[in-house]
Design goal:
This protein is of the alpha/beta class. Helix 5 links the parallel strand 7 and strand 8.
Amino acid sequence: MLFLGIDFGTSGARGIVINEGEEIISQVNFSFSHQDTKNLSQTWENTLYLLLENISIDIRNKIQAISINGTSSTVLFCNKQGESIKEPILYNESRDLTILNGFKTIIPENHLINSSTSSLVKLLWWEQTNKVENNYYFLHQADWLGFLLHGKLGISDYHNALKLGYDVENLCYPDWLKALPINSILPEVLPPGTPINTVSNDIVKKFNFPKHCLVCTGTTDSIAAFLASGVTKPGEGVTSLGSTLVLKLLSKTRVEDISSGIYSHRLGDLWLTGGASNTGGKVLKHFFKDEELEQLSQKINLAKPTKLDYYPLLKPGERFPINDPKLLPKLEPIPDNKVEFLQGLLESMAKIEALGYKKLQTLGATPATKIYTAGGGAKNRNWTKIRQSYLQIPVHISNQTEAAYGTALLAKRSHNN
């Protein structure tokens, strides 16, 4: 038996097929730039079908379950045939927050949806600027792509629905949300990885999937990447060392501090909490080329820590673990020795990481006991050793980091449950 996970990102899509042993059997990629159409939803549909076509038939006809992830808060509006009414609104496209002014007495003041890019703000903007019919559907990117395979409209998952205002603790829409004028087109929300339906007859004929192949609710791209790491126990976390420094920790308790960008996603009976610092790889790349980073890192003398005290930012402003929009970068003094300067930067970033996990614990999260590492910085062995010295817990490199792999795991678990 095989299981397919599909990851839709900002520039293209990836599919990964795994077996029951969770080994990768097949991988396929497609860029959106290969598409001629200027219609974004049509581009998504074309890319999805091209992705499926490029998985060999002998693999496709053994796939038992499929799940799809998409970018959080990328949304679209459909008619009853599932056709996109207008262009989708992408995750990073904002809408004027004054749209909420008329609902200030209803919407909780410090709720996650009070963001110009939240799904709910986009939905309210649509309702106030367009005629909304009762037979319209409001869907996230992953919801709509799943519909193309199973044919049922109006179904989402509670990862994507978090920024729509769904109550992930009580697993229902809160009363204040049901009192809004858009209540009639809110999707039904199910746990991620819940079987929705078998693939449609058209999809069976077109791609030779088994008739009993299940299509499941999906998730967001960032949670799929977390699932790929293999973390399953409270206290285990993933640090992503990309252009920014992102921490995610699996906790027995839910943690919220919206002003610092900290909120929790539900993962079964556990909670996935975390935050993102503005420090990270983009600061390193400002001072060093990739080859320099690799060569200089190898020359670091771990037995001799520097006394450099930096807060490595490229411009003022930080949200986590220090919430200060005016926090100034601290990057001086810069020593003549490049190895020492790099070591000072890596040490300072490790301090910020340790401070981040400590802040999550202070807010009530399960204390971190083991950290997995993803992103480009994961390959830097000396940085790993520096980080471990500050974190004082084991640090490992994640075996898998692809969001498509995490989504394939979601499909497998849905089939086995």
